[in-house]
Amino acid sequence: MSETTTPLEGPDLASGVAQIADGAMLLGHARGEPVLLARRGDELFAIGAICTHYGAPLADGLLVDDTVRCPWHHACFSLRTGAALRPPALAPVSCWRVEQSGDKVYVREKLVQQAPAPLPPVAGIPQSVTIVGGGAAAHAAAETLRREGYSGRITMLSADSSRPCDRPNLSKGFLAGTAPAESNPLRPATFYQEHAIDLRLNAPVAALDVRARQLHLVDGTRHAYDALLLATGAEPVRLDIPGATLRHVHYLRTLADSRALVAKALTSQRAVVIGASFIGLEVAASLRARNVEVHVVAPETVPMERILGPHVGNFIRTLHDRHGVTFHLGTTAASIDKQGVRLNSGEDLRADLVVIGIGVRPLVELAQQAGLVIDRGVVVNEYLETSVPGIFAAGDIARWPDRLSGECIRVEHWVVAERQGETAARNMLGRRERFEAVPFFWTEQYDFGIAYIGHAQRWDRVDMDGQLDLDVRDCTIVYRQGGRKLAVAVVHRDLEGLCAEVEFEKAIAAMA
Ligand SMILES: Cc1cc2nc3c(=O)[nH]c(=O)nc-3n(C[C@H](O)[C@H](O)[C@H](O)COP(=O)(O)OP(=O)(O)OC[C@H]3O[C@@H](n4cnc5c(N)ncnc54)[C@H](O)[C@@H]3O)c2cc1C
Ligand code: FES
């Protein structure tokens, strides 16, 4: 996830190139590093050309004002400073000085990135911030507080046994064995020390006392808070059938879960995956990469049809068929024993590994027990503040008023959780910034990836432009309700995905 091993392409920008057009980007290099040259009006910018998330080429992205958006998962970088303005990228890209001389443009020396100016201790800035959680939203909030110059105490109380990790990768490259294990933590341990973030692992919180402004930890200790962010995420729904707690039955949420699954996969021949959700199917693909025979059991007749529509659902099924996965659809698991899984259809499937992926439930107990308003999630306003002033919630637990759909929604997307963590952090510093990011998620199965922009809880029409089958994967799918465009999914059309995001943002801005 760094700008290192990419072969250099394009011209040597340090030696000078001809002027580029307004709104254009040019991929080149300078002193051995890939550099993106971009022009906006009369201004020229040069920043690192490789996204710090998973290494996408930013030259394939989209210029929006003085930023560039990444084609793969829509991170956003400042052309002026290289700062990562929107997750999922956390680290900045480098930035170079650009000089025009005659009719040529030269990329000169690299600019030193400025440390944020410390925030003055004015009224309204909390003395300390406590974050319950150690996942996407929690980490993004802590990092944002420091980026904004907050110098008060930051404590993260996480039930996890490991540092904040790249959760989406746990069912993909990490499980398949294609991503290096060391790439998984979002930040190294030294990051938390250097930024004075007191990250406490194995520190589950048992109760929240709003009147005393205290958290009660499971280990019996108490922790007083000033400003508080709840980012407890979600946990897998447990399957309540005989045998579901046997040792070879796995769920997947944490790094520890994924490690246990990898260890078991190494000695397994046959797996049954219960559930054809994103996680279930990503797990199926990753286990196939390890040559484990995979059977998928699910009640629906077309996987993912409810979210992505019948065309994509049927394609995904065909894709898995092609990779040797056997589906048992329209049925459910009745019981599990050491030999395998018995289905309600009466069929017995042999298995030495069972993975259950039947959805998640938001962990709202702390908020609920403390009397915060709950409605299938923790209810927050447009500033991500809960019904108790000064207590914010972000990520999988938060149900917020989404302008685009006009509904209060709760989503389980990585990028949304990170962006909410950022907004909540700024609002804890008194910014009053509305959360208006357009929801975004992606899934990857084998060599197939799809990105989804917007949110269509329900849709009555799906239009596909392009082709999606085993030979050609190149399409845009639009989901509408009552004629209104609510979401867009793209396959191999990254720019269209970015343009859809910008179009939704404009629609939201017009509602202001
Ligand atoms: C395997 C997997 C793959 C995924 N792939 C994708 C993907 O491809 N694309 C996508 O958009 N999304 C994906 N997701 C979903 C995405 O990871 C979540 O939406 C995101 O992690 C939510 O962030 P969060 O901060 O709300 O919760 P989490 O990241 O789950 O973090 C919650 C944190 O709270 C802690 N916690 C919970 N209760 C307590 C307590 N009482 N006290 C202290 N700490 C507590 C937990 O230990 C954890 O650290 C995936 C999820 C999984 C599990
Ligand atoms: S590679 Fe750029 S956002 Fe993921």
Strand order of the largest sheet: 1-10-9-4-3-2
Largest sheet: 6 strands, antiparallel
Structural class: alpha/beta
The count of strands amounts to 36
Q: Judging from the principal axes of the Cα atoms, what is the shape?
A: globular
Ligands and ions found:
flavin-adenine dinucleotide, FE2/S2 (inorganic) cluster
Number of helices: 10
Give the overall average pLDDT. 95
Percent of residues in helices comes to 10-25%
How large, in whole angstroms, is the Cα Rg? Answer: 24 Å
Estimated share of beta-strand residues: 25-35%
| First-residue to last-residue Cα separation | 37 Å
- Uncertain segments: none
Can you put this structure into words, describing what you see?
- It is a single chain.
- The protein is of the alpha/beta class and about 500 residues long.
- The chain is built from 10 helices and 36 strands.
- The strands form 9 sheets. A 6-stranded antiparallel beta sheet has the order 1-10-9-4-3-2, with no helix packed on it. It has a 5-stranded parallel beta sheet with strand order 13-12-11-17-29.
- Strand 23 (about 335) and strand 24 form a beta hairpin.
- Helix 1 (about 135-145) packs across helix 9.
- The protein is globular and about 80 Å long.
- The mean pLDDT is about 95.
- It binds flavin-adenine dinucleotide and FE2/S2 (inorganic) cluster.
- The site of FE2/S2 (inorganic) cluster has 10 residues, from loops.
